[in-house]
Specification:
Immunoglobulin-like; about 25% strand; about 35% helix; GTPase Activation - p120GAP, domain 1
């Protein structure tokens, strides 16, 4: 979800690797070990939870988490919890990183000291206050002052134990401290509207000059207003502190009026008296990205240069694939043939980036979005094949070609992976059959022959589901494999197997084998498997990789003797023929009707809260917790996990999936699944989970030809739609539907956002582009041995490469000027105390100033 800022959209995302914790304090008992897990929180809202690591004070998690952040936040927090024998969770410590500080740790493995967790320090939300100081002349002629304090509203207060019944307590701090005055309690809301005013008489005289209030310095330091927010509780322990602010009266200045939003802060000295060193530490790698995306026309020059990269002629193969490729973006790209491909904009990006992966991710997403991924990859693959001398090393390096194909398979083939591997992987992870075949690691209670047979059965199952899945392989992957096969066979005509190894090096080595090894990274499992299961998957992955490699001597390819012995159980001729038939099928350019052959595969499940749909005329439309389950055939909900479905919605009946405005039921994180006769209203557990459900439901139902173009963003209540006030419950929607995806690739890609990311990379590596320009000039005029300082660049045509570099630098500089102007304007318009930028975030103003100064310097 993007935040709109006057024609500019801001996207936030975070990629986190939760490594390990160490020196966790021991449990106060004879066992002393703990069962710990870690959570990721946006402020106080939990968005991810690792698995529990049992009986350890130095738990290793090794889990990755990525999400698009759909709202503003102040802190990215990590909590370590311990689950005791009674399944009660107690917090051990936390790491809280301010949003402005995330760049300090960008992409670095960092050890963070765990801090104490205190109810008084866990605050979020903001409050809107208005202060007015006025003079009052008494009957005796003495001038006194009254402070009028108006508490208008709060936003984003924390929900404590499932409820939030807030009220505000207001007091004047000074030499003669006043009693707190309280607002009325607002029930069941974390966005209360108070609109209450309190008056305080300033007893200490203030010096007064005509037309201005002048508070003396000695008095200013002692006079302040305190506003605390509390959650009214029926428990005997009393009300719960939600946060507070302290406003010194100096803010009234000369006019005597102050109107501002404040971030709520923790209570002073509210933390537990625990030595920080006693809580342990947590290793994290955080990559936070914030994309500022301008309107599409700003990116036209750079986008056109990039799309020209897919228009190169690659003899017979490239032309054929360029003709069969589908173009699905509206681009005014004129025909421009760049010879060779190394002089193209996309290839130059791969040359200047420190790691090829940096360039591959946005390039692949942009070319997929525009339907040009096949001709682009065909061009760079053809060039790489022609440079390869030994057919046994084809596509073995981490080149731009390899990284782009990896990324394409990961994006276009994710559903293919789920349909093919997920059922078997789920079974392996739940059965826990012993499969260790290394005699050194074998446990005393295990039998080597039994373990070997268990492993062989798993390998056979996975091998069979892979080699019989060819008809499900996405068309875009088949077209790419076709181009690899043709280029390799043309280059190495003597080697009859190269047409297979060129494809198997990707589909087995870089697609299926990694997914088996780390199913959590490919969304096949929610968490990293336990050590025993992980070992089983490692052995399966090694065997599948070797079976699919078509190596001349496979037993010799294993370093371990026990693996070579295990491989002898497999008939090379039988398995080799199956692999070749599979590779023949997936490297044939064509399309199949997948719907008729798909089997129901579970894609996502979990507890959520749903509102009754009103299928019965007099039924209660209340909210209930249900277990939801989504397959590629239907969306169902059940009373509990494992029970029969209470309701089943076929995928073809899902006409749209959209967010539901919070005002409908005064509930956050709600969305609606719209059907022909009604809508199902659902509340997810947090904002990230709501986004995940919306995304996957949208993608699964995308091919439905009856999908709606408009919808109602609010509910139908009390005889009318809350959004447009229309009384008919069958009235057409009043708002355009979101989430429309290209028909040929089920992938939600924002082309402008990807182009913005590519601009950022070019901007980061500007010095290397200038150096590459110098290399072009040197190579053009210097007809001798290549100069060492320029040897890292691939330059086949210096003149064409120089021309492309000049166009890239011009486009990047133009975009850089737009970013600089935006940063300057934002700095000028930023008003501390506004609803968008409340007072209380001390580093925010400094952050904006630094951004403005850095952009000024860059010009």
């Amino acid at each position: 979800m993007a935040v709109e800022e006057e024609g500019l959209r801001v996207f936030q995302s975070v990629k986190i690797k939760i490594g390990e914790a160490k020196n966790i304090p021991p449990y106060p008992g004879p066992n002393r070990m703990r069962d710990c897990y870690c959570t990721v929180n946006l402020d106080q809202e939990e968005v991810f939870r690792t698995k529990i690591i049992e009986k350890s004070l130095c738990p290793f998690y090794g889990e990755d988490f990525y999400c698009e952040i759909p709202r503003s936040f102040r802190h990215l927090s990590f909590y370590i919890f311990d689950r005791d024998v009674f399944r009660r969770d107690s917090s051990i410590g936390k790491v809280a990183v301010k949003k402005e500080d995330l760049q300090k740790y960008h992409g670095k493995d960092t050890w963070f000291q765990l801090q104490p967790v205190s109810a008084d320090s866990e605050v979020q939300g903001k409050v809107h206050l208005e202060l007015r100081l006025s003079e009052v002349i008494t009957d005796s002629g003495v001038i006194s002052h009254k402070l009028a304090t108006r508490v208008l509203e709060c936003q984003g207060l924390p929900i404590v134990n499932g409820q939030c019944d807030p009220y505000a307590a207001v007091s004047l701090l000074g030499p003669s401290r006043s009693d707190a005055k309280k607002t009325k309690v607002k029930r069941k809301t974390n966005n209360p509207q108070f609109e209450e005013t309190f008056y305080f008489e300033v007893t200490r005289p203030l010096s007064y000059t005509k037309r201005q209030f002048d508070v003396e310095e000695e008095d200013v330091d002692k006079l302040a207003l305190r506003v605390d927010l509390w959650n009214a509780s029926n428990l005997k322990f009393g009300d719960e502190f939600l946060g507070g602010v302290r406003v010194p009266l100096r803010v009234l200045g000369q006019v005597g009026v102050h109107d501002a939003w404040y971030f709520l802060q923790p209570r002073e000295n509210g933390g537990k008296s625990v030595k920080v060193e006693e809580l342990g530490s947590l290793r994290l790698n955080i990559v936070y990205t914030e994309d500022h995306v301008f309107p599409s026309e700003y990116y036209t020059p750079l986008r056109d240069l990039l799309l020209h990269s897919a228009n190169v002629e690659v003899q017979r193969v490239g032309v054929q694939l360029a003709q069969t490729s589908t173009i699905c973006c509206d681009s005014n790209v004129t025909s421009l043939h760049v010879q060779p491909v190394s002089a193209s904009t996309a290839h130059i990006l791969g040359e200047v980036c420190r790691e090829k992966q940096e360039a591959a991710v946005p390039l692949v997403r942009l070319f997929l979005h525009c339907g040009k991924i096949v001709p682009f990859i065909s061009a760079i693959a053809h060039t790489e094949v022609n440079r390869t001398q030994d057919p046994n090393t084809i596509f073995r390096g981490n080149s731009l070609t390899s990284k782009c194909i990896d990324e394409t398979m990961k994006l276009a083939g994710m559903h293919y992976l789920q349909v093919t591997l997920k059922p078997v992987i789920d079974e392996i992870c739940t059965e826990h059959k012993p499969c260790e075949i290394d005699p050194v690691k074998l446990k005393e209670s295990e039998n080597l022959d039994t373990n070997r047979e268990n492993l062989r059965q798993y390998v056979d199952r996975i091998f069979n589901v892979i080699t019989t899945s060819g008809v499900r392989c996405p068309t875009v992957m088949c077209d790419i494999f076709f181009s690899l096969r043709e280029s390799a066979a043309t280059r190495f005509q003597v080697d009859q197997d190269v047409r297979y190894t060129a494809v198997s090096s990707f589909i087995f080595l870089r697609f299926f084998a990694p997914a088996i090894l780390s199913p959590n990274l490919f969304h096949l499992r929610p968490h990293h498997p336990d050590p025993a299961t992980s070992r089983t998957l490692t052995l399966i992955s090694k065997t599948i990789q070797t079976l699919g490699s078509l190596a001349k001597s496979k037993s010799a390819s294993f370093k371990e003797s026990y693996m070579a012995a295990f491989y002898d159980y497999f008939n090379e001729q039988k398995y080799g023929d199956a692999v070749k038939n599979f590779l023949d099928l997936i490297s044939t350019s064509g399309k199949w009707d997948q719907k008729s052959i798909e089997t129901p595969i579970m894609l996502k499940e979990g507890f959520m809260i749903k509102r009754a749909q009103g299928r019965k005329r007099f039924g209660m439309k209340n909210f209930k917790k249900r277990w939801f389950r989504l397959t590629n055939h239907e969306f169902t909900y059940h009373k509990t996990k494992g029970e029969g479905a209470l309701c089943s919605i076929p995928i073809e009946n899902i006409l749209a999936v959209e967010r539901l405005e919070e005002e409908s039921f005064k509930m956050k994180n709600m969305f609606q699944v719209i059907q022909p006769e009604r809508a199902l209203y659902i509340q997810a557990n947090n904002c990230v989970e709501a986004r995940d459900w919306i995304d996957i439901l949208t993608k699964v139902s995308q091919c439905n030809r009856k999908r709606l173009s408009t919808y109602h963003p609010s509910a139908y209540l009390n005889g009318h739609w809350l959004c447009c006030k229309t009384s008919s419950d069958t009235a057409p929607g009043c708002t355009p539907c979101t989430g429309s995806l290209p028909a040929n690739i089920q992938l939600d890609v924002d082309g402008d956002r990807e182009t913005e990311r590519i601009y950022s990379l070019f901007s980061t590596y500007m010095s290397k582009m200038i150096k590459m320009q110098e290399a072009c000039g040197s190579k053009s005029v210097y007809d001798g041995p290549e100069q060492e300082e320029y040897s890292s660049f691939v330059i086949d045509d210096p003149q064409e490469t120089y021309k492309t570099l000049k166009q890239i630098i011009s486009s990047v500089q133009t975009l850089e000027q737009q970013h600089t102007k935006y940063k300057r304007d934002k700095f000028k318009k930023t008003k501390i105390g506004s609803q968008e930028h409340p007072i209380g975030d001390k580093s925010f103003q400094c952050y904006i100033r630094q951004q403005s100064e850095s952009s000024t310097y860059s010009i």
